[in-house]
UniProtKB/TrEMBL annotation:
Family classification: Belongs to the FAH family.
Domain Fumarylacetoacetase-like C-terminal per the UniProt entry, residue ranges: 88-287
Protein name, per record: Fumarylacetoacetate hydrolase
Alphabetical list of InterPro entries matching this protein: FAH, Fumarylacetoacetase-like_C, Fumarylacetoacetase_C_sf
GO molecular function, one term: metal ion binding
Keywords of the record: Hydrolase, Metal-binding
GO biological process per UniProt: small molecule metabolic process
Endpoints of the signal sequence: none
Length: 298
């Protein structure tokens, strides 16, 4: 069972659920967290409350909806170097390809404390169909397809979504202290298209993540991995995020990338990125290059 928001003429968006057969049922709550809170108030699981609405008349089929972000995540955080593939890619960009060097990426991959960084706010985060931007001062940019955990203020995992942690490999490779600039800019994060309810997932480590990139109607990249390749446990990542921190209901924690395009690949203006997570759906975003600018002294 998945939760979406779709565009509706008379309202900004409508919260709805999608059943296994792809039928969409409207939910009478303004947003995902209100729905979760209502289930708690009624002493039911979110899934049990969701099921009650499938007795209603469906409004549409999922394929026909124009979707928005499934929620306004107040903050998006991200985990790094949680898959071998990510560690190897970072080592490549940090050492100009000297793969025998041992770096801080090797250290963090094996360390007890995971890498967790601040990725985005609701205003910087886009949803299905919206443009993700390319920075004007980077020549090596890639999407990072990641499993996103939707959590409440206590760190409880409420659901799963797909996320794109857009990244500048040249900026991060130049100096790891540039990480916030390599990761955070306008439209550098995308989430959606749906929230797969945690109650409806038996084993999240069985979820698969696929990324496809299209250029001039041709597929130029296609890669796939499984969450069971994750070095850490999902709960472990959440516990480090919430430790001595203030987290807000509906925060999204991205869990790291495990699909990386070849080292010579960079995104171009006009590309289309598809990120598919089994059970969640396909998050599709066109890519838009930001015009070159001079740095301005204020
Ligand atoms: O260490 C930098 C970021 C790594 C990251 O974003 C990832 O592994 O997904
Ligand atoms: Mg990432």
């Amino acid at each position: 069972m998945r939760i979406i928001r779709y565009k509706k003429k008379e309202a900004k968006h409508q919260l709805a659920l999608v059943n296994k057969e792809s039928f969409v049922f409207d939910l009478p709550y303004p947003d995902f967290m209100s729905f979760v809170n209502e289930a708690e108030k009624q002493g039911k699981t979110v899934l049990a409350l969701a099921k009650e609405f499938t007795a209603n008349e469906p409004v549409e089929k999922y394929e026909n909806m124009i979707l928005t972000t499934p929620l306004d995540a107040p903050e998006v955080w991200a985990s790094g170097v949680t898959y071998e593939k990510s560690r190897d890619a970072r080592n490549y960009e940090a050492t100009e390809g000297k793969l025998d060097a041992t770096t801080f990426y090797d250290k963090v991959y094996d360390a007890e404390r995971p890498e967790i960084f601040f990725k985005s706010t609701a205003a910087r985060t886009v949803g299905p169909g919206q443009e993700v931007y390319l920075r004007s001062d980077s020549n090596w940019q890639i999407p990072e397809p990641e499993l996103g955990l939707v959590i409440n203020k206590d760190g409880k995992i409420l659901g799963y979504t797909a996320g794109n942690d857009m990244s500048c490999r040249d900026i991060e490779g130049e100096n790891p202290l540039y990480l916030p600039q390599a990761k955070v800019w306008k439209n550098s994060c995308s989430i959606g298209p749906a929230i797969l309810l945690a109650d409806a997932v038996e084993d999240p480590y069985e979820l698969t993540i696929t990324c496809r990139i299209f250029r001039n109607n041709e597929k130029v990249f296609d890669g796939m991995a499984s969450v069971n390749q994750l070095k850490r446990k999902l709960d472990e990542l959440v516990s480090y995020l919430v430790l001595d921190n203030e987290i807000f209901d509906g925060t999204v924690l991205l869990t790291g990338t495990c699909v990386v395009p070849p080292n010579e690949f960079t995104l171009n203006d006009g590309d289309t990125i598809e990120i598919e997570i089994s059970g969640v759906g396909i998050l599709i975003n066109p890519v838009k290059q930001q015009a070159k600018k001079e740095t301005v002294l204020y």
